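In the present case, backbone shapes were mapped to integers, as reproduced here:
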Amino acid sequence: MTVELGIIEGYYGTPWSWDVRTETVSFLAPHGYGFYLYAPKADPFLRRRWQEDHPRDMADGLAKLAAHCRRTGVRFGVGLSPYEIYRDFNTEAKEALARKLTFFDALGIDDLAILFDDMEGSQPDLAEAQAAIVDWVAHRSRASRIIMCPSYYTDDPVLDRLFGRRPEGYLRKLGELLDPAIGIFWTGEEVCSREFSPGHLARVTGELRRKPFLWDNYPVNDGPRMSPFLHLRGFTGRPASIAPHVAAHGVNPALQPVLSRIPALTLAESYRLGPDYQYGAAFETAATAVLGQDFAIRLRRDLLLFQDVGLDGLGESAARLRAKYAAIDHAGAREIVAWLDGAWRITEETMRAQ
């Protein structure tokens, strides 16, 4: 059984360039990646300043990306985070939201995601308030698919510590109130889940009254604890047996766009090969496809240092690695050098500002 795969650009930190986005779409489309959702945390006009219009240069970039996706046969979507709009969905908020929907319609988006993640969510009528907003949007947007991200999008109790205790029966109420055609994002048993099992997904399907739309937080590396590591290994814990239990599978990529393509290719292989999938062999095949054979061999030798030891544990090895990869004329090597130089570090201040 095939699964719809896609990229969800939903990380904190420095956003990708428009050229990198189009290159990523073009590279991954032949490997089964059929949608691209633009939702970087660094775009303030989708988050804290969502009521404001995108500046002309950003609007032009979005229009060109949408057009490229259409030419490539990839669904293009945008993720909007109307910050805590559910606290007072008044006339002013509706007018601002309507203007934003008009802008998205002009882009010709296929997918529209309304994202309520990373916001205070302890109010008792949270599910009712959010469902009403999503329903309002669904009746006014021309997007052919609407997806929402709940405030509590995982079983992980870390969200309750950060954003308040989740209301009783929150997921069940969302499932009851939302039109069955509307997708619901889910990251699994944790924010960054180690695995997705058929049993877990079946339970969530029962609560949501629809199959979850996976928002997979691998290989993303955007937090203070994760940014000192490069997530390059092939996907594990995503067996092909979960295919009947998901609506689609979206990958939140790493800050390094070229290197992100390596694990992305392995996910497609996991679904394609089923029980014959081997994540080590899949990494080697994918790295070769992305970087070329010689570069891939070098990267394989250093994989443990990048993914497990991390930047802060490299010590004297950091200078050796920098010289090694600075000598390679490849965008992926330049990403490694920038990471070694600390250019990709994410702080708590970065996350709070976005």
Summary: The chain has one domain: 5-285.
